[in-house]
Amino acid sequence: xxxxxxxxxxxxxxxxxxxxxxxxxxxxxxxxxxxxxxxxxxxxxxxxxxxxxxxxxxxxxxxxxxxxxxxxxxxxxxxxxxxxxxxxxxxxxxxxxxxxxxxxxxxxxxxxxxxxxxxxxxxxxxxxxxxxxxxxxxxxxxxxxxxxxxxxxxxxxxxxxxxxxxxxxxxxxxxxxxxxxxxxxxxxxxxxxxxxxxxxxxxxxxxxxxxxxxxxxxxxxxxxxxxxxxxxxxxxxxxxxxxxxxxxxxxxxxxxxxxxxxxxxxxxxxxxxxxxxxxxxxxxxxxxxxxxxxxxxxxxxxxxxxxxxxxxxxxxxxxxxxxxxxxxxxxxxxxxxxxxxxxxxxxxxxxxxxxxxxxxxxxxxxxxxxxxxxxxxxxxxxxxxxxxxxxxx
Length: 393
Hints:
Helices cover about 35% and strands about 15% of the residues. The protein is an alpha/beta fold.
């Protein structure tokens, strides 16, 4: 029952620096844990203690936590007390606007003069034409002391008057935490029972947001594909019974969710594959694919900011939305042209390491926190708010 379990604190720090940075989040997903571990180490080097307060940690997480996590269900009074007790120098809100706690928490932080940043995409990309949603985001962006954006292109979705307080932290995963995979493609195929000469892989939560990743397009392509050398491997949760029934067992394998403490199994599958296809809403699956040198093929849609990493004709392709024929054509083009696929593969890994490193993401957070804490020092100064004439000589 919601609210029935006590606070759970894990990953306690050894020595606490003077200034604290607190991230308030909804469920902490397993792929965020290595990111926050990195933030914890790097913030400490800058004299900050980074910790997280969230309503839950994804049960599938198997990565040990290096940062302090206070886990408790959303309750404004409890969060208000916990934040007041922590006395953070800055707070980062990683919440959805539909998370009810977001609204009282933002106004309370403002009233208490605790500087806070809103970690955001800048708008709801699935409803960009909604004037009401734009106004809601506009209000949240305005009341925040700073904004942390998923990418610099997110600036186009926020009012220009907020640009001076907006910091880009290109959204990514912690590649440094991914394991080395010495096994060859053939050894990995044997381990997982994959019989195909060339492999298209899909990785993602298939049932999320009414199937917005459009895995059904891939299933339909391979249902009618008359090739003995090419296969599809589906990795992730949420595949409906209807789609399972549509799978062509001759050339498609559904592996479900793949989790382990080192992300070794998923890393092996990515190394084994030749092309990654995510027809809709690419997300961080694109980052992981590019890291392993997989060109990505997708369709035009309301993609999240990670789509900025895809350069059509260089490291992947974007075909018109809903054009399954064009999707199939580009997938087969890459599979059947080894030299071109190798070039795309090299560009994919090169581009993601240059544009979406974990250090680059941390740098955006660090610059934002420095901005927040420097503003707080000015606001707390005994002469703040007084004119030059009022100040003693």
